[in-house]
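Report of the visiting student (M.T.), summer placement. My assignment was to run the structure pipeline on a short list of targets and document each run. The first record concerns 7-cyano-7-deazaguanine synthase.
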Amino acid sequence: MIRTDAKRGALVLFSGGQDSTTCLAWALERYETVETLGFDYGQRHRVELECRDSVRQAIVDAFPHWAERLGEDHMIDLSVLGAISDTAMTREIQIEAAANGLPNTFVPGRNLMFMTIASAIAYRRGLSVLVGGMCETDFSGYPDCRDDTMKALQVALNLGMDSRFVVETPLMWLDKADTWRLAQDLGGDALVELVRVETHTCYVGERAELHDWGFGCGECPACRLRKRGYEAFLAGEQVTQPA
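After the run finished, the structure tokens were exported:
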């Protein structure tokens, strides 16, 4: 049974991708008021930002009981982050491992900035829950996706704003197959299909061909993970990202 906490309002970090869309559905099932927040930081795959409106509208059309809970959308220009980043997410360079062992898709400070800005907006909007799609199970080792980072950030935000924010990361301990399963648990086959067709995850922004698992190049780490997760979901298995 899905738990509800209608007394609280939530702000969801919403990129237009699979994970954030699943988190949006998760929040809509729980909270009376749910707003969304996106960031344009000069990402190479900024086509995901173009998917945000269509995903939100598809949710409204397919799930009337969630439509009345879906509130305002906020878009923040965070181009300064792209300007100071030299990564495969913000530059037309090959995706590969960096000298520190992390993939060069890591954008230093990204989630720290995202959550800090989210808390400022939530403070102004009277929302007490911040929801993000960070995950430590099938991630690429990004330190700002780790559970310890999110817990520490929650403490810092509450101290700095004298508030009682709760940082929720519903995907933290799920692999990609589990993320597909969560979508099905929340909205059945209709939500799975919405995620498959409407969302975007591909790091290089390829959206020309619709595969069984969704749009994408099929070769970048995000596409490979999404594809394996979808296939494992259909087969009733689990899949995690290889080392």
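Strands lie at 9-13, 33-40, 70-77, 129-131, 166-168, 210-211, 214-215. The chain has one domain: 9-235. I thank the supervising group for their guidance throughout the placement.
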